[in-house]
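User: Watch each token:
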Amino acid sequence: MIEVDRHIAIITTTRADWGILHPLAEALRDDRQVRLSIIAGGAHLSNRHGMTISEIEEAGFDIAARVPMPLNDDSAQGMGYALGSACWGFAEALGDLTPDLAIVLGDRFEILGAAAAALMARVPLVHIHGGEASEGQIDEQVRHAVTKMAHLHFPAAQAYADRIIAMGEDPARVFAVGSLAVETIRNQTIADWASIAAELGLDPERDVLAVTYHPVTLADDHGVAPVLALGEALALFPEMQMVITGVNADPGSSAVAESMHRLAENHPAAVMVPSLGHRRYLSLVKAAKAVVGNSSSGIIEAPALGTPTVNIGPRQDGRLRAASVIDCAETPNAIAGALTQALSPASQSLAARCETPYGGEDTCRQMVTALKTVPLDGLLIKKLRVADDIRSEADMDIGFKPLELVR
């Protein structure tokens, strides 16, 4: 095995992606053959979103570069300006640091700026959690665009690896290693809920719900109407405590956040927290009777923690699901019915024993090995696997149909 010194940059822009990337960052920082640079930007540097860069620093990491973005204007024009600002800032950071590889995760709009900056800087891009689908979101287009700009892929499931390959990517550069978040849940001790509940002013002996709802970026109202429906449904469960987490920095986030604040104010036992941090959030989800909302954490983390999910609306359409995920429409009756089902003994028992489709073996170790050993020479050169190449593989059916030309 060829082992060489590598300078690897991790780009993080939100509390959510850092919570997933944290164990990989630790493994790279502790590896003597790797020089790690953390580039933090976006919501990490926003007071409105909890100034979560402190979580990175408190974990003992130095910040190599900071990329602030204007996130106060969540209109389409404002978010476009923020994306342009991200591209500029990440270009400066990558130009100054000149890493051998740059890592991004997921489908946040700002990583499109990071990917474009890496492309222009001739820095090979590593994409984690590619190949997934979230058909109700702008994220869908962002994710696949980043896949086509990336040179190394770490999808969280084999089905997603197959999709990346079907998009024309080289199978030798695609590693279906599973989810870092699921591995973290399996390998780490989850923080004690009683102490966290006390911090939040909640009774650790009473049932609690984790409520996480983000804008639906392709909906005309960005998901405000479903929040009103969610409030009506949750009002039918006054005995339940609720922890409502902050809203992503997405188009329409201000209106959705305002509606979520009103929801919290109107419920007798609800608290709203801009950012719990990954450690406290996992503790909440494990203790909760259900995760309610439209966050990917209800699809990936909650099943791994044995907690049922009430998944509202189309935001997660297309993602693989565990049996413990209950999908419902964006109406009060549908949400209340799904939550009643989630709270039933049968659903609680199912969630406690069901398997997640995002599990893997030694996810972090496999990533580190690939990052350290992938040959850098020629990595920037990508060869598109055309449809004829894909169709020649008898075991892969992607539904390709040749076009009949009219002569």
User: Anything to note?
Assistant: Residues 76-97 form the longest helix (22 residues). Residues 392-407 have pLDDT under 50 and may be disordered.
